[in-house]
Design goal:
The structure is a homotetramer. Chain A has about 350 residues and is of the alpha/beta class. Chain A is built from eleven helices and 14 strands. Chain A has two domains: about 70 residues, Phospho-2-dehydro-3-deoxyheptonate aldolase, domain 1 (Alpha-Beta Plaits), CATH 3.30.70.1140; about 250 residues, TIM Barrel, CATH 3.20.20. In chain A, strand 2 and strand 3 form a beta hairpin. In chain A, helix 3 packs parallel to helix 4. The first copy, chain A, is elongated. Chains A and D meet through helix 8, helix 10 and helix 11 of A and helix 8, helix 10 and helix 11 of D.
């Protein structure tokens, strides 16, 4: 349930609505956006509508509208927060005209590999460093990541290059531990509907980068975000990374439509990962340009100094010099779109 | 790497191969199936082929073939174990001519709902009781299950009706806890690639029912099973439960092909879940018959005494009397297929 | 618009409704099925509802219900004709307890190949002979069929073995010509939405076997059938032949759900083509059994005396002796389903 | 088979290769592109390799390489013609830095609707006018187009606004007739594998706009183009128009990857149709920008003066003023990409 207020409503009027919602056994979130207050009322689990609550709220002073019908997601919706959510990450303001560029290797493989990459992507213009220490893999015999040693290398790289670190967390139990090292917790495509992990990421109050599941609908991705938001953690970015289709010349199909569709439904910043969404380094730059032109709030790109030796995702990783060229091209499109990067 | 032996090979010869494999830093599993021994050599993580190992093994006495090329999965393959894997579950032998029938509600909702269903499905001919205490849901506001209280109701139902219990576990941390109540750990479609959970299910040494991810390939499902098997836990059943396609008149598309395809590639018993694979109770019985005719080793069916009041999956749940009719029809097909149920 | 009548309605009352419909500028079709008359009123092209017509019809004597809402398809619906449509084809009654078995080569390649196959499938129990003289191919450099010479060989094979002939027609212009040779016109998956061809097949008044498009929904297939029916040609069978999905171990994904779903929506007989829906001969028999168990009204199977030399679809073609075994197995399932074959 | 020549090869040497190819029973096409001659040798139907031909050709003077292996497509490949194919259409050179903008209504509905749209899109900057006179529709009761009257209105609109006309042809029989009115023959998604139509479009020697089938792979689309090219008609554009996936918030999923993938495999210009690929007018402009940023050679956009009254595709049609805004935005991206429009 979303309650919007008249533009001249008083904070005490908002507070009265919050109290009425909470008396009814629901939880209330309040936000000021686009010149008006709104309150979102969500359940603690069961989502049963309380009889009469909508009518009682509509009668309170300052209230403009009560959208009582159960929406698919509430806290993530633009009906609740009309303006794009924005938060600081290192030197940029995510969800603003700043275009966020995250880059780095798929997996942290060694100190030299990570540091070399970190310095190169910083130099080329990246705002954050990505790198996986825990890797979800299809086969139990594939490289599974360096674990804690990888997290420590990421910390060291952050010290050296000054970029905030984005790294994946795979289980709810690891969240507090990974959160000590990471600036942004990444939830990978295979875990998009891992609800204990989503809850833990919400509780952590850390920024979260939530990747779309390989065959998740846009609506399901926003539902997954809602799990995180329901803990009051609103620093969430969602990320299109390609969906599984019948086309086999590319690893995945970039659902470029998802960018404007997410933006029409939700206030959450939306990124594009053209490395996974194409699966081939030769197509990454063209699709990165397309993502920015479609309105993406940022990009996440795999970069490796020696892609042919990478322990994972070599085929889709850019060499540092190609990444620098990508940044140059993306800046051109971004400038025309009125964005900085 | 899979090493097969001549039919008259001695156990000491098999033992020598195992020792040579382990000396090389790999782990070895040995099985006698279809009249011959085989050894599977798998890595502890990285999967690098050891130079010269294949040649050394081929030269040992009793060895017939060495399949050195890295196969997609090893322990789950029919190349390793030619005969279908079989294990006891309650009154039936899974993976034998016995056709396994698992039935029960999607979620455990209350004592009366569970007990009523358990007695009814037992009466109708089911061999195991399903019921979810932990529910992965798309929305954080949907019913998430009764948790431990649900597990205790399942225990009580087992006492009363004598059927083994199949129930879902959602996190690796919960495995030891759920394993105290469950006879079979179910890993749901959303968690098919949750590798910490797969590892924990492997370590538990409990029978596992692994459901295919909504958009997982058959190969990926068998890779996921390999995670469990790599802990020496070979009591694994895989389950086709429908895949996501463009067709929208049904909730999912039953990939009936998966049944013979899995059987051609793997020794693991394969079940069909026509409740999820269709999403509508009116199509469940026809697709259950089809599954048995295609060769499935079992079925898992959602049954609810009052589907219209179910907190989850009501549309696809059968009333007990319809389930009884399903069993009657399935028995006819099974008998013709040379199976008992 | 569908008008149903009371069970004791007089034919003159039905006739009055037909006249009122036609006066309104619509076309009327009348059928007696399941103990009652029904009239379907469809437009000649635009499908605009005539104001007041529904009310006028509802007031006429004998009328029981008027379903005025524009349904997705009308003539193909069970709302119009509750009983499965049935017609004679050679020795069997399609759409009755008879299970129709169509078999033969993908393409007619030579006299000896066709005659050998025809005699073998007849001997094994097939009721009709399939064989393509015009082949739609992905590449312009693949074998495109023998054309008219192929049709003449099919005629000769019919003479020799006494089986009716099913063959594909690829353009509306060829319909009258192919109809001189064929007993059933096949419309292939690539042409399922070729509306000029559908119209021409309707006008021909020949039995039609309409294959589902590779990515057509069930509803779209029934719409395509509606094109044919709208010419008063009701001898139409629809055929599930697999849909395109992400699964790559099989050529297509057999949408086995489509069988009961079509039967719930439409009176048209529904066949399964397990050769195309799997793409591998080794899975054809299992899926054929599944199709019959799901309730299919028939099967269409590719058979070739020397699959390894076939100019098209060799991988999915059965040798005659394997087809004989398929028939044996399918008969067992069919008998249990109360069907003859 | 593709034969490339040394950069200083003489035309008489090329001619000798052509003669040798033709003596062998194949057809030869020759092109000069990227500073060298190449000859493509394709069969007249069966595609059997002639024994020894490759070796004989490799020995001829001037020949640099002979790629003998049967490629999936030959005439459409960049291996044959390295530079993007280019041809004149009205005031623009398709396949050059010019960005082609085609706009107009889905269907020609009336004189006033068409003329109003034509003048508006011309004014806004379109280079060609689209409009359907023959409409392939899912239902036989939907509007099927004005037919010849529609073609005459298109002719009149061309006279008035000076834009070349792009219109769909649905059957091979209609090609000569439609070609009298059209400047570009459009082959729609449903007909992408209608081989008689592809052949006829090839024979017509008219420019062709070939739309990707709803579930066609990129490779199948290029094979379909090969049918047209095999008649010596090289003025072919291919068009990404969205593919069918599980995502249901949009009508189709724009496969933006297809743009750089086609360009890596083929010399044919590639367009994007964001109207069909999204299905909602509100997303068309963002996806049009993305297409240009990805490198598309042109766009085709549905425009209707009164979308809410359109007889087809109203939801995805832009009003003329929104189209003008789209052109403004697209020009910004195009300029940065070094293209004119």
């Amino acid at each position: 349930m979303i309650i919007t207020f008249q533009s001249d409503a008083l904070e005490t009027q908002v507070e009265s609505v919050v109290q009425e919602v909470e008396r009814s056994g629901l939880r209330a979130f309040q936000r000021f956006s686009a010149g008006r207050w709104a309150v979102a009322a969500v359940s603690g689990g069961f989502g049963r509508a309380r009889p009469g609550l909508g009518d009682r709220l509509a009668a309170l002073p300052g209230v403009l509208t009560v959208q009582a019908e159960q929406q698919p997601f509430v806290l993530a919706s633009r009906a609740f927060i009309p303006e794009t959510s924005s938060f600081e990450l290192g030197a940029v303001q995510v969800g603003s005209p700043d275009l966020l560029l995250i880059a780095g290797p798929c997996s942290v493989e060694s100190r030299s590999q990570l540091i070399e990459t970190a310095l190169a992507v910083k130099e080329a213009g990246a705002h954050a460093l990505r790198g996986g220490a825990f890797k979800p893999r299809t086969s139990p015999y594939s490289f599974q990541g360096l674990g804690e040693a990888g997290l420590e290398l990421l910390s060291e790289a952050r010290e050296l290059c000054g970029l905030p670190v984005v790294t994946e967390v795979m289980t709810h139990e690891d969240v507090p531990f990974v959160a000590r090292y990471a600036d942004v917790l990444q939830i990978g495509a295979r875990n998009m509907q891992n609800s204990p992990l989503l809850h833990a990421a919400g509780e952590s109050q850390k920024p979260v980068l939530l990747k779309r599941g390989m065959s998740a609908t846009i609506e399901e991705m926003l539902f997954a975000a809602e799990y995180i938001l329901s803990h009051g953690n609103f620093r969430v970015m969602v990320c299109e990374r390609g969906i599984r289709t019948f086309e086999s010349l590319t690893r995945n199909t970039t659902d470029i439509n998802a960018i404007p569709v997410v933006q029409s439904l939700s206030h959450l910043p939306v990124l594009l990962d053209p490395s996974h969404s194409t699966g081939s380094w030769e197509f990454v730059t063209a699709i990165a340009r397309a993502g920015v032109a479609a309105g993406a709030d940022g990009l996440i790109i795999e970069v490796h100094p020696h892609p042919e030796q990478a322990l994972s995702d070599g085929a889709q990783s850019l060499k540092p010099e190609r990444f620098a060229e990508l940044v140059r091209q993306v800046r051109g499109i971004a400038a025309w779109m009125g964005r900085k990067c």
